[in-house]
Amino acid sequence: MKTTLEELQAFVAVVDGGSITAAADTLGQTVSGISRALARLEKKLDTTLLRRTTRRTELTEEGQAFLQRTRAILASIDDAEEHMAARRQQPAGRLRVNAATPFMLHAVVPLVPAFRKAYPQITLQLDTDETYIDLLERRTDVAIRIGQLPDSTLHARPLCTSRLRVLASPDYLARTGRPKSEADLARHTLLGFNQPESLNHWPLRGAHGDAWPIVPSLTASSGETLRQLALQGVGIVCLSDFMTAADRARGDLVQVLAKDTVEVRQPISAVYYRNTQLAARIACFLDFLQERLG
């Protein structure tokens, strides 16, 4: 059976105080509690550490050797606690963040310089995937996910929402004409996702209610690929504001069927495991994102 921290502390306190009574006062425990801790320790080590008389307590040779190692162990624990306290004050260490490529490029990357200036001791590792990943398998601290989250053992923290819009480039519309109704989309090149199929239901009012199912002429796994295709004038696309706001501000993409568009805002959340204590570096990263994206 392994020795415990309580037993080691009791042993050192008796040596330093010169008696069990003094050790009990130092540690805020009862005399009987200190005596039992010493007895357990000596039994586990199968040796006598202290010679106890009515007047004094002396270390045996074995006790002297064990005391040196015990002091080193307790000093190491104190150092570790101080180090962790310092990390809480100034977060440090590697932070592995996973997100879909568009969100990483358009939302996270622009914030990296300011984050690194605020938290220079945090080393960011930025990974991208277009589908949900297993955080444990990929050794990921926090993943940013877009859309409704399935039930899981992951803890979720909302960061912001982002509106969906149907968009096209002025060049494409000049060549093909601007659609005036949902029915007009049938004669246009529609850019959609490979998966999930729900992303190919555009927020347009019509015969299908507030979600218009499209038949894509071309599909891709990444919203960034679809954005680039739309910018090149290949077709019409439905994308989130977080990745197209700058394009719309420059006039590179324009909204179509605006009057028929339902305001649908995609929730954007950070997920991490519930059964792990939220490390300071994860907390400060999520606080930083939420403050600037929310």
TrEMBL record:
Database matches in PROSITE patterns: HTH_LYSR (PS50931)
Keyword Signal annotated: no
Domain HTH lysR-type: 3-60
Keywords: DNA-binding, Transcription, Transcription regulation
GO molecular function, one term: sequence-specific DNA binding
Protein family according to the UniProt entry: Belongs to the LysR transcriptional regulatory family.
Designated name of the protein: LysR family transcriptional regulator
